[in-house]
Amino acid sequence: MTVYLSRLLLNALNRAVQRDLADCQQLHRTLMKAFPPREAGAAARREYGLLYRMEAGNSSARQLLVQSALRPDWSFLPAGYLCPGSAPECKPVSEVYGRISTGERFRFRLRANPTRKISVDDASRPEGWRPMRVELRGETNWIQWLERKGGQHGFRLLAVQTDGKVPDLRTAPGGQTLGWRRAPGQAGGRAQSCLTLFAVLYDGRLEVTDPGLFQEGLASGIGPGKAYGFGLLSIARGG
User: Fold this and answer.
1) DSSP E strands, 93-238
2) Are 131 and 116 a contacting pair, CB within 8 Å?
3) What is the total count of domains within the chain?
4) Shared domain check, 148 and 93
5) What is the DSSP secondary structure assignment for residue 183, as one 8-state letter?
6) 147 is in which domain, residue-wise?
7) Is residue 42 within 8 Å of 212, Cβ to Cβ?
8) Is the Cα torsion angle 117, 121, 123, 125 positive or negative in sign?
9) Is the dihedral of CA 115, 117, 118, 124 positive or negative?
10) End of a domain among 52, 73, 99?
11) Residue 208 has pLDDT above 90, yes or no
């Protein structure tokens, strides 16, 4: 497993940055330019292990964290895209992830798109049904969703010391991520539909229960919407 973590300080006053912040599809396309060109699509994102998260910022600067399985080349970024005086930072984190063991505790941050799948009637399909994701609402549902993901990805949420049943976790609505989905083969054509994805920001503590699954989760991301800035699990010791 090879993993790199980049930190970019975006100039929020730059028009190209404003364009990317307003359209998650466009931001995804911009970030994919840091890697060798190949046929566009989710397969390319998975191959390069691209995950990213936009951190809260101010009117002039936004911090973007980018994780990838290949060292990115940020030299394509246009003049003024980054804040004056800043430069892309990139470091390998594979060795750190590879040393994680059972029982280790970490503080973590995750921007996720908690959803569940339902079947909806679709007359255009021969079988008449297709799966659709719907947003989960309310802190209880958000926490239960992350607990299920923890079971799949080799970690458990730690409880507050005063009550073993209450996770030591803060959740907050992260607003909506907007973008435009274009019709296949019409990259320069009109947008086919508007993308609206609901975000939840998790900050808390976890304990590793299965290092192998946990390392896979760190590398591949948690939950849906990974092409649009969701799923990057960031950890720090001291939990």
Assistant:
1) 105-112, 115-121, 129-135, 155-157, 159-160, 163-167, 169-182, 191-208, 233-237
2) no
3) 2
4) no
5) P
6) 102-239
7) no
8) positive
9) positive
10) 99
11) yes
Sheet containing strand 51-54, strands side by side = 51-54, 61-68, 4-11, 89-92
Cβ burial, residue 178 (10 Å; 0-12/13-18/19+): middle
Same domain? 73 vs 26: yes
Are the beta carbons of 111 and 230 closer than 8 angstroms?
Answer: yes
- Residue that has been written with the tokens 């900050």 in this structure: 203
What are phi and psi for residue 8, nearest 5 degrees? -120, 135
Structure tokens at 221: 């991301």
The answer on 116 and 54 residing in a single domain is no
Same-domain pairing of 218 and 108: yes
- Among 99, 134, 154, the domain boundary falls at 99
Q: Which amino acid is at 112?
A: A
pLDDT tens track for 144-194: 999 999 999 999 999 744 345 567 777 777 666 656 555 445 455 554 567
Which among 148, 149, 147, 172 has a CA at the least distance from the CA of 158? 147
Top pLDDT among 173 and 138 is at 138
- Same domain as 137, residue 93: no
Give the separation between CA 219 and CA 197, rounded to whole angstroms: 22
